[in-house]
Write a structure and sequence with these properties.
By secondary structure, the protein is of the alpha+beta class. The protein contains 17 helices and 15 strands.
Length: about 575
Amino acid sequence: MPSGTAARPGRNAQMMSSEKRGIVEFFLNVFKLQMNLSGRAGQYRPISGEDGAADQIFELRVQAEDQWITRRMTISPLGEQSGSKSKCFKVIYDDMIVVKIPPSPVTDFSRYLESIQAEREIARHLEPEIRCVTPSLSAILRKIPPFSQELDTDFLRFEERCYQKLRILPVFEKYLKIGDGFAFFMNLSRYSFLGQIIAGMHDIREAVRREISAQTEILGNPMLFEEIYGSDGGIFFAMDGLYGSYEDALRELALQYGLPALSSFSRRDWFLSHLAGMPLNPGSEELPDGFIHDLNGLIRRTLEADPGVTDAYRKAMRRHAYRKRFAQNRARMGGVITNLLGNLAVLRSKKTAMRDLKPDNVFIAGDLSGDPFLLETPDSYSIGLIDFETSVVFHPAGGREIPQPMLAGTPSYATVSHLFTNPFLSGMHPSLERILHLQDWHAVNNMIYNVVTGRQMNAEAGRLMPLMIREMKASRGANLSGEDLYRKYSALFWRTALGEFTRKVALHHRLLADVRVQIPRSVREMLSDEIGCSGSAVGAWIRTLLERSEEHTSELQSRQVISY
């Protein structure tokens, strides 16, 4: 979006990716328009986080007369980036917006509107069973004068008004462009991404700090320590020895500064705060700054004297904090999984494949701020979907052929079949519909593991996908058939995925077994049908192998007769 005066990044912002830089500059220009300062000098600089990190905060600055007006925005990438599909970013600017940048710039406005309409058609097909959010013109134009002056609470009415104004005055199309092409904007201000929910369930950093800092009564009490944290294998007594050394050195330090006797609580609190990663700051206590500086150095040297003990103690705290957090979230995990499976059953009944299901493409359709226990009751909320770029309805409007979807997916949630066309897959498998549906099945399976453990299921298999794409491009001039490539990649991918699945399920089997999931009737029916389909497919595969074996045996016998 042109601004009249070029935005100038601060020195720390110059290493950003081109997509992120374009988005930040776009919202800087939105800020200028909102302040009626278009054409004035503008700057931006990161004030929190690093490029690629979650929730990087930028300060936007616009010059107004002899002063600078400032505000903040937050941006973070969504999901793994793949060169074959759009890159998505979460932006918090007044509310939460998803910004999608196509891999190749879309410069034709009619084609841009067609893309929005195509996603909206799939969303209408899935609603009301699944709530959907698709790109819209009003998601961003509602923030920009003159559109914001006509803001309407009715979404469809305001969306149509934006469209009509753009048809009459094409000059406003620039408000939808980032760089050389149009960007897609989705308003998710009312919802939370499942990825955010999962991260919150498994982020125990603050819980560990609180756990360690709260041990002022436990330090020096082995019975109480064992009652709470279990048998520690000597960790408590080793840490108690370090604490004794610290107290001896602290008495000498206090004498050097002429300080009166220090309370037992303060001595323990300082030690535990440092152990939790929160050393004292000068001025935080009614003590000389020099003493606080030397105190931090003393505690650091004490803990570094035996790093094995310190690390083991912190690990014991992390294990305990994780067990507590898991127990608190176990019912929430079960509720989320119930709704993920329910969505999978709806997609199957609606003859639709999303083909890029992942935590950053699904959201919680419910008010989490109003009910902190909402996730524990799956019937009280649903899981919605965004980003239909790779989606396909199997037989839209009564058509016989399945439209060709984009050959793309997110590596950690995709399969080899994501890289091959419909005609090819139809020649390799009895049912194209089933293969496309199983792409979503595979993704949901990985998401379930992610919900319970906070970790990726297919990290190793996912890393094979970019390698396969490069090899496919390189092999186009070689004498390798598509069937040879497909069989080669499938064998490698599924062997890796199966090994990873077996190891990780065994590693986290207790956590997985502890989560209770309600299985709705629609899901039970889907599972029953899938078992039948799998049995039929295995039976057909065995019959094919037997037929090939008989043909091979007959051929050998014929050769023997001829040789005689």
